[in-house]
Design goal:
Layout (H helix, E strand, L loop, with lengths): L23 E3 L1 H8 L3 H16 L3 E2 L4 E4 L7 E9 L5 E9 L11 E8 L6 E6 L1 H19 L8 E5 L3 H12 L6 E5 L3 H13 L5 E4 L3 H6 L3 E4 L19 E4 L7 H5 L2 E4 L2 H4 L5 H9 L5 E4 H5 L11 E4 L4 H17 L17
Parallel strand pairs: 1-7, 8-9, 8-11, 9-10, 11-12, 12-15, 13-14, 13-15
Antiparallel strand pairs: 2-4, 3-4, 4-5, 5-6, 6-7
Helix pairs in contact: 1-3, 2-3, 2-11, 3-4, 3-11
This protein binds nicotinamide-adenine-dinucleotide.
Nicotinamide-adenine-dinucleotide binds next to helix 3 and helix 4.
Length: 356
């Protein structure tokens, strides 16, 4: 059974609640209990959602970036979206990125996801969403790794460029979807972060020799699967020569690679219009060249057999990250928590129920 077929008929969440609209709060602990160990199901769910989106059964406007003159490194992004199919839900992810949090000992990103009922518009749940966000990102990355590595030699060495939470989740999803590695390389500007992630790999019993690379070049040249998960705001990897072994690159952090590298590679994105915004590397490449010819297509094109990933050049997957993926995973979590009878409904949340 796939994750998507877990959904019952798409009736209104609200009509299921006797006495009118209700509102539930789902904690990070509840989210994690639902998602942990279900990596393969979530990859299937994310792929199904992505297919729905590509078929036009979604509304996914551009993300809105809230920035602050007094805190230039911080941002909060709103990702409103609506997804059809059997998921049938609207909503918004509201995700903060405060990189200075790391020095204070807490994760950079924090998030909530609001789910709105398809038929009435009423919000019916608020979910802790940093786990949902990391999960859907890792699931999408694992899906891309599987589809884009077809026809290539087996990937034996993975390199994590940027050693935070997202790198950890992506490794978990790669392993859960069948990857095993001879070497796991780690590179980070922060010695502590590199040490923390490599300690996690060692202590969690990950297979493969764990190597911390002081040099960015060393990491890339020794990895045939490279995962970028940094917080870099502008390109810092500029030498195409580092990629002459034609690695598969999961460019999850979107802003690490200079246009010269994009231009020498096969480029796959999740959604063209989304990805060519907000000064991502694909966006900078479009600005430099004045066209989109450097883009080969989307992951859906690859999944649908309309394009075959190149094997004679580096392949770079740049996923902007779509709100519809958060909605799908969030609705899945909601359903599972409800099915277990564990929904924590806030009594009287919607209080003014009569018009007159
Ligand atoms: N595309 C998507 O859908 C998607 C979804 C979620 C997160 N992300 C992105 O993934 C990235 C990582 O997120 P996280 O939560 O793991 O962040 P994090 O802050 O936990 O870790 C990021 C790490 O990158 C390191 N770093 C920053 N600049 C670097 C550089 N130039 N070279 C080497 N290391 C560098 C930092 O020291 C830090 O350890 C963020 O940019 C985030 O926006 C993308």
């Amino acid at each position: 059974m796939t994750a998507t077929s877990d959904y019952t008929s798409p009736t209104s969440e609200i009509s299921e609640t006797i006495g009118g609209p209700s509102f539930a709060v789902i904690s990070g602990a509840q989210v994690q209990r639902v998602l942990q160990g279900r990596e393969r199901q979530i990859v299937e769910l994310v792929e199904a959602t992505y297919r729905l989106h590509s078929a036009g059964d979604s509304v996914n406007p551009p993300s809105y970036f809230l920035r602050f003159p007094d805190r230039p490194s911080a941002r909060i992004i709103a990702l409103p979206a609506s997804i059809g199919g059997q998921v049938r839900v609207d909503g918004v992810k509201w995700i903060s990125s405060f990189p200075e949090n790391i020095a204070a000992g807490i994760p950079r990103a924090s998030a909530v996801l609001i789910l709105n009922d398809h038929d009435t518009g009423y919000p019916f749940a608020c979910l802790e969403s940093s786990i949902i966000s990391a999960t859907r990102t890792a699931a999408h990355a694992a899906s891309a790794a599987a589809w884009l590595s077809r026809g290539r030699r087996a990937h034996r060495n993975v390199g994590f460029f940027g050693a935070g939470l997202i790198a950890r989740y992506i490794h978990t999803f790669l392993v859960a979807t069948g990857w095993s590695f001879r070497e796991i390389g780690v590179h980070d500007l922060s010695v502590d972060s590199a040490a923390g992630l490599s300690r996690h790999f060692t202590q969690s019993g990950a297979s493969g020799r764990v190597i911390v690379h002081d040099s960015a070049e060393g990491l890339i040249r020794s990895s045939d699967l490279v995962v970028f998960a940094t917080t870099a705001g502008q390109p810092h990897v500029t030498d195409p020569g580092w990629f002459e072994h034609n690695p598969l690159v999961l460019h999850v952090s979107l802003r690490d690679l200079a246009p010269e590298i994009m231009l020498g590679s096969s480029n796959i994105v999740d959604d063209v219009d989304h990805c060519l915004r907000a000064n991502t590397s694909p966006h900078l490449t479009e600005q430099l060249t004045g066209n989109r010819e450097f883009l080969d297509g989307t992951l859906d094109d690859v999944m649908g057999g309309r394009i075959t990933p190149a094997t004679d050049r580096p392949v770079i997957f740049s996923p902007f990250g779509l709100g519809v993926l958060d909605l799908s995973v969030g609705k899945y979590v909601y359903r599972e928590v409800a099915r277990a009878g564990d929904l924590r409904v806030v009594d009287d949340f919607f209080y003014e129920r009569r018009r007159h």
